[in-house]
């Protein structure tokens, strides 16, 4: 890919200019030429990604959903973008070690390096808030790294647009933009919380094709990062050790396959070696053996109760206490854990843990460092059945040299007014965040 010149700003949505009408003629002419076209030789530029962003933001308020293909043609733009991004993502390891930020910092000619790592939590299809976040934090560039902690789709009305913008940045700057998988990047969640129906509504007879391509891309999303050797990020959090022990082989029979089963009598924290061997392409349960690890990373939650235990509230993953946070940080010589996964609706049911009104909480403070929950979707969820909205702020974290382990928090409010949109799921029946999951249905969707 061609190296773009550093860029730090993008025009954010202008609340005064947002026309909440729907349909042709309800807004001004598009800000860029549409339909978009794929650049020659597939060489993306900052300007192309900006044009994609501007076109999608305009379409969100000027066009009905079914006309999105007039902006992003499936064959000539969507397919090459997703294919190119998928090839990059599938080649990345389960846990991506981001050490280039150290090198970028040390090679800076200034005495105070401008290198930054921006960590972003759940976005949930809130396109306009993503655009504002990028305008405030600065666009990805050679000295501005981004780590996105998953949950790009579902619940919000513009999950596809949000995901496409992030894929474009990944293709443009594959070693500066890192996209992790969230629990909503799955077949089950997207069938329940709206993304599948969103895609079908926006692309009609080609919707099934677009949805399948998105699922294939989800399979390639890595599970975790380690930033500068000091900071661990993942969507849900920590994971168990899965020690595989051979079962007994019947006497007298040769060449029989030895089956392995996980020893789960006593839960203990896993290692990065175990994480590296997990098969992340399993989109939904059943997770077995080493593949319990992706389920833990995507679904687990912190607790104030010591120890490691099954996450019975969600039915998947683990709960871990401050002692586990200390053990994990100390064992791997880390200073921070930054995870996401819990919005204001989930946190109001978690005694002892802070709410999500500022977009982040510091959940554990231990001798070796801290555990932080980061949520980047303000005024979440977009569609709320409760009388009073949560009106939470979103947040992102900036990590700076020399050690990249002293988090700088940036809270922001939702862009208002949002363009009018219809929900793609029965939000009145799905108030809680991913609780009491139908595991049988999850298996059936696999």
Q: What is the fold's blueprint, element by element?
A:
Layout: H1 46-62, H2 74-91, E1 95-98, H3 100-106, E2 116-120, H4 127-137, E3 144-148, H5 159-172, E4 177-179, H6 187-192, H7 195-203, H8 207-220, E5 224-227, E6 231-234, E7 244-246, E8 260-262, H9 272-277, H10 292-299, E9 301-302, E10 308-310, E11 318-320, H11 322-331, E12 336-339, H12 344-347, E13 360-366, E14 369-374, E15 394-399, E16 408-412, H13 439-445
Parallel strand pairs: 1-5, 2-3, 3-4, 6-12, 9-11, 12-14
Antiparallel strand pairs: 2-15, 5-6, 7-8, 10-11, 13-14, 15-16
Model description:
Belongs to the PPP phosphatase family. It comes from Turnera subulata. This is Serine/threonine-protein phosphatase. Helix 1 runs antiparallel to helix 5, helix 2 runs parallel beside helix 8 and helix 7 packs across helix 8. Helix 5 links the parallel strand 3 and strand 4. The chain has 446 residues and is of the alpha/beta class.
Regions with pLDDT < 50 over 5+ consecutive residues?
A: 1-26, 246-264
Q: In angstroms, what is the radius of gyration? A: 22 Å
DSSP E strands, number: 16
What is the assembly state of the chains in this entry? single chain
How much β-strand is present in the residues?
Answer: 15-25%
Helix percentage:
25-40%
User: What is the straight-line distance between the termini?
Assistant: 35 Å
Spatially, the strands of the biggest sheet line up as: 1-5-6-12-14-13
Q: Can you give the mean pLDDT?
A: 88
Number of helices: 13
Largest beta-sheet details: 6 strands, mixed
- Class based on secondary structure composition and strand pairing: alpha/beta
Secondary-structure element pattern, one letter each: HHEHEHEHEHHHEEEEHHEEEHEHEEEEH
Indicate the overall shape. globular
